[in-house]
Amino acid sequence: MDKILSVKGLSSGYKNLKVLHNIDMDVERGSITAIIGPNGHGKSTLLKAISGLLPTLSGEILFDGAAVPASAPDRARIGLVLVPQGDQLFSSMTVEENLMMGSFSRKNARAIRQTLHEVYDLFPRLLERRQQRANSLSGGERRMVGIGRGMMADGQMMMIDEPSLGLAPLIIEQIYDALGHLAGGQKSILVVEENPSRVAKVASAFHLMDGGDFAWNGSAEELANSGDILKTYLGG
């Protein structure tokens, strides 16, 4: 299979606290890969380390076959895009202004407008709200803006941290339908979720994180047949 991302022996953390311990993981091009597990065990830390927001203490990260650059902005420029947990929008700016901020490293105005149309096609609600300030949006609309802003970077891979956090079931379904559509269009997605049932319908590979390392890896089918693992680590 064609790997877009390969993580080998990665250790990372915060100042004197090592959180990740020798992580090995591959993400196939055009796939959705899920990192699941209880809170506080390193899932978000892994995304931050891959994106360059946290240092690599040991190991290596290869993106599209080459070592990633050192800085987070340079990793975003080569197509490794992070959609962080929570809203993190510019509250006083409009929906469209927030979306356009995602295209900061792009130069082709026509291509940028084309991507903006793709965002609006995927999230029609944002087209209706495009002139509203971000602080007037609902939680689900804000999450759509965050994902749309990630799309505007036109990266090969999007890393999305807890896209369903705090949302109603219907909105969660809409968000994951959108992620499935993106992967079908050959975008690669690495998504963090606490609850595997939310991502099981679209992800092809799962990694269960516990204590800064992977306690289990497998396919969606293997996950469905691993009731003991889910009960042990996730309570059900």
UniProtKB/TrEMBL annotation:
Pfam families: ABC_tran (PF00005). InterPro entries: AAA+_ATPase, ABC_transporter-like_ATP-bd, ABC_transporter-like_CS, BCAA_Transport_ATP-bd_LivF, P-loop_NTPase. Residues 5-236 form the ABC transporter domain. PROSITE patterns: ABC_TRANSPORTER_1, ABC_TRANSPORTER_2. Gene3D superfamilies: P-loop containing nucleotide triphosphate hydrolases. GO terms for molecular function: ATP binding. Keywords: Amino-acid transport, ATP-binding, Nucleotide-binding, Transport. Belongs to the ABC transporter superfamily. This is ABC transporter ATP-binding protein.
